[in-house]
Write a structure and sequence with these properties.
The chain is built from 20 helices and 28 strands. Helix 10 packs across helix 11, helix 10 packs parallel to helix 19 and helix 15 (about 510-525) packs parallel to helix 16 (about 550-580). Strands 3-5-1-12-9-10-11 form a 7-stranded mixed β-sheet. It has about 800 residues and is of the alpha+beta class. The protein has 3 domains: about 35-145 and about 205-250 and about 260-290, Aldehyde oxidase/xanthine dehydrogenase, a/b hammerhead (Aldehyde Oxidoreductase, domain 3); about 295-470 and about 635-820, 2-Layer Sandwich (Aldehyde Oxidoreductase, domain 4); about 485-630, Aldehyde Oxidoreductase, domain 4, CATH 3.30.365. The radius of gyration is 29 Å and the shape is globular.
């Protein structure tokens, strides 16, 4: 929807679709807010953690006695001091019945399995004294062999990360006759792709503050999941849940990295309980890079079978997914989410998926923006491009031959998902127009013909994703340890103002603004008169929090349901005030009127005040029109879109420049275009960063060597292009017609960029460049291809010489078959 001007904003029902500036931003950008690290409590102490310098080692002794005598130190602890109370950090997603879930103590007691694992801590009067005192702790280790390559880890002779071995699970799914699809196919291609390990790098580092007073615990944390964290803290520590309050103040980004129950949160609770004093821990950036869970990290072996016209028959996916040293909250479920989306928007006869979760002596992986769907989208979009190249067809043409048509919705895919709506033609046509696809293809041919040292590549990503992570029954069928519902409350205040309580917990998404717009339209209350409360389990006791682009599609719908209940309650009281039958009342947002007598009416604000006074309520009616609602959708939501990327590649240096980028997304109806644009832009930055810049790198000993932002490359605004964005609209199957948007840009952009790079280099015989596609990697791929061409030319020359010597015709030297066979 387009933004409304002030002149057209006469009625409050026009909030939906209006490009409102965010309510939150004034306090956020001026610093008039509370981040967790801002909190100062009377008598507060500071924690610093001593972390393992080894990727794998047995702890033979820990001596903290000297640290206790350092200036300013109040206490020092080893893992042994918490052994009887720290429990094991939870994994809530046992994806197979025989999954191996090793014990994961918040502080190591016997063995360390990644560099950065906590082995001891110091509690001091300030953070600097605590950090200094760590040097006085003596730890003796017996070093063990690290396990760093998951391809080696699955071999029988590999050193073991855990006694049970290096494989956590083997998840298999198939639908259709896969063997037949490949046996009879004229064309079969096979590729192996690498999804590198990424570090989420939220703007605000993790921080925790915990106080304990009379057995009541209050934990402030930079978390995405205050409600889930509260439950898990109770389960891990044995503290009654009703005695734990979790508060997420304003949180500076998460991207999945704060969708976690961390060692530091558990230990802060235990230390506060031991000392009876409030404690704080805030990570440094280097500490965070080592100990915030990482994302992605897969090897993808892919096979695709097709007819010669490009129709896809079958798709085989075989993944190795690096779990790291332990399973964290949803670690094993991340690649399994991807299993459902590998077929993407395409129809096919058969599909098989296998994923083996492998332990290594590295930081555990878990959810990172997109959580399994970027990996799947990258794989299928790269493979469709490879299929088009194999057949000599335009890659957009191959996509269109296989995608689901608008008239076929709702459509159940080969992976078992039912897509409710979509129009891939419309999004692609709009993207193609904005991009000048045909003109760029002509320019590309001209550059190739002229052997221009700067080659042009065109990358395509026609994607869909499953988001609004919710349907509890579906999550239960996937062995997920919780539901996917969401809760909301509406409080009608006597003065006509409204308090909205939401179970979703914002960390940059603009909930306070969008939720106010939704409620304003539903209740006819001015946008400015609505306040949104969230992120505190005492104020908002019910919720499933924020991740998986679920806030609007699930939490927003809970709001609508709560508003419905407010209206139904208010209707009974309005009937009494108007001395009319409730059946004779008509509701227009903000006001009830008597049918046939529109001048006789009462506003929602007047009803709220009359309810507060409670002087003349109908018999048996409680003096409240407040309402709660819990919403559990029947299905995911399925945003989609077409992203097109043009890259210029200097073949002499390997430098990649994104010349233009067009993103046309279909996210259903739009609540606030400004917020949507911000989400898309941010997502594009992260997806492009994976394609070109970011990679967590370990050395041969298991040390993370990308511990600072000088080593781990995050693009700035000057490194990224100006995007052209637009939208088409296919309403979702919910009352608002909304889908998710928070992860769309990240999911779509990585394959678009890499496809563009490979497209530019394909005439050289290059089929892939491993991400991140740095200038060095691109340059080396070009040099390797040129070297192979020279070697091939030399071999052909030698063969011709031999043929001439033997009297044979050189015409026997042919070219490989371009349409069939395994690549």
């Amino acid at each position: 929807m387009t933004a409304q001007t002030d002149e057209t904003q006469a009625a409050p029902t026009l909030e939906f679709g209006r490009a409102r500036l965010r309510k939150e931003d004034e306090r956020l950008i001026t610093g008039q807010t509370n981040w967790t690290d801002n909190l100062q409590l009377p008598g507060m102490l500071h924690i610093a953690f001593l972390r393992s310098p080894f990727a794998h080692a047995r702890i033979t002794s820990v001596d903290v006695s000297a640290a206790r005598n350092e200036p300013g130190v109040i206490a020092a602890y080893s893992g042994a001091d918490f052994a009887d109370e720290q429990g094991s950090l939870p994994c809530a997603w046992p994806v197979t019945p025989d999954i191996v879930i090793p014990a994961h103590p918040p502080m190591a007691t016997e063995e360390v399995r990644y560099v950065g694992e906590a082995v001891a801590c110091v509690v001091a009067r300030d953070r600097y004294a605590a950090a200094d005192a760590l040097a006085a702790i003596e730890v003796d280790y017996e070093e063990l062999p690290p396990v760093l390559d998951m391809r080696e880890a699955i071999k029988p002779d590999s050193p073991k990360v855990h006694e049970a071995g290096n494989q956590s699970f083997d998840f298999v799914f198939a639908n259709g006759d896969v063997d037949a699809a490949f046996r009879d196919a004229p064309v079969v291609i096979e590729r192996v792709y690498r999804q590198q390990r990424l570090i989420p790098s939220a703007m605000e580092p993790r921080a925790v503050v915990c106080s304990c007073v009379g057995g009541e615990f209050t934990l402030w944390s930079a978390t995405q999941i205050p409600h889930v964290l509260r439950v898990m803290l109770a389960l891990v520590t044995g503290i009654p849940e009703q005695n734990i309050r979790v508060i997420a103040p304003d949180v500076g980004g998460g991207f999945g990295s704060k969708l976690q129950v961390t060692a530091e949160e558990v230990l802060a609770v235990l230390i506060a309980r031991k000392l009876g004093r409030p404690v704080k821990w805030t990570e440094s950036r280097s500490e965070g890079n080592m100990t915030v869970h990482h994302g992605r990290d897969q090897w993808q072996t892919l096979r695709m079978a097709a007819d010669r016209d490009g129709r896809i028959r079958g798709f085989e996916v075989d993944l190795l997914a690096d779990m790291g040293a332990y399973l964290m909250l949803v670690t094993p479920g991340i690649p399994i989410l991807g299993a459902l989306i590998f077929p993407a928007i395409y129809k096919m006869d058969a599909y098989s998926f296998r994923c083996r979760g492998i332990f290594t002596t590295k930081m555990p992986t878990d959810a990172y923006r997109g959580a399994g769907r970027p990996e799947a989208t990258f794989a299928v979009e790269r493979m469709v491009d490879e299929l088009a190249a194999e057949l000599g067809l335009d890659p957009l043409q191959v996509r269109e031959r296989n995608w689901i048509k608008p008239e076929e919705f709702p459509f159940t895919t080969i992976a078992g998902l039912t897509y409710d709506s979509g129009n891939y033609e419309a999004a692609t046509a709009r993207a193609r127009e904005l991009f000048d696809y045909d003109g760029l293809r002509e320019e590309q041919e001209l550059r190739r013909a002229n052997n221009d040292p700067v080659q042009l590549g065109i990358g395509i990503s026609t994607f869909t994703e499953m988001c609004g992570l919710a349907p509890s029954r579906v999550l239960g069928s996937l062995a997920y340890g919780a539901g996917g519902w969401e809760h909301a409350s509406i409080r009608m205040l006597p003065t006509g103002k409204v308090e909205v309580v939401t179970g979703t917990s914002a960390h940059g998404q603009g909930h306070e603004t969008a939720w106010s717009q939704i409620v304003a339209d539903q209740l006819g209350v001015p946008f400015e008169d609505i306040r949104v409360l969230h992120g505190d389990t005492q104020i908002s006791p019910k919720g499933m929090d924020t991740y998986g682009s679920r806030s609007l599609a699930v939490g927003g719908m809970a709001l609508v349901s709560a508003c419905d209940k407010v209206v139904e309650k208010a209707k009974v009281i309005a009937a009494g005030l108007l001395e009319a039958s409730a059946d004779d009342l008509e509701w227009a947002p903000g006001r009830f009127s008597v049918r046939g007598d529109p001048d006789k009416g009462v506003t929602i604000a007047e009803i709220a005040l009359a309810t507060f006074a409670a002087h003349n309520l109908p018999d048996g009616v409680e003096p409240s029109i407040d309402a709660d609602a819990t919403y559990d959708p029947d299905n995911f939501s399925f945003p989609h879109g077409t992203h097109l990327c043009a890259t210029e590649i200097d073949t002499e240096t390997g430098f990649v420049k994104i010349r233009s980028y067009v993103a046309v997304d279909d996210i259903g109806t739009v609540v606030n275009p400004t917020i949507v644009d911000g989400q898309v832009h941010g997502g594009l930055a992260q997806g492009i960063a994976q394609a070109l810049y970011e990679e967590a790198v370990y050395d041969d000993a298991g040390n993370l060597i990308t511990t600072t932002l000088a080593d781990y490359l995050i693009p700035s605004a000057s490194d990224l292009p100006s995007y052209v964005t637009d939208r088409t609209e296919s309403r979702a199957a919910n009352r608002l017609g909304v889908k998710g948007v928070g992860e769309a840009g990240t999911i779509a952009s990585t394959p678009a960029v890499v496809n563009a790079i490979v497209d530019a280099l394909r005439p050289l015989g290059i089929q892939d460049v491993t991400m991140p596609c740095t200038p060095e990697r691109v340059w080396r791929a070009i040099q390797d291809a040129r070297g192979a061409d020279q070697a091939s030319a030399a071999e052909q020359h030698a063969a011709r010489q031999s043929d001439q010597t033997q009297g044979n015709s050189p015409q026997g030297v042919g070219t490989p078959d371009q349409t069939g066979g395994a690549a």
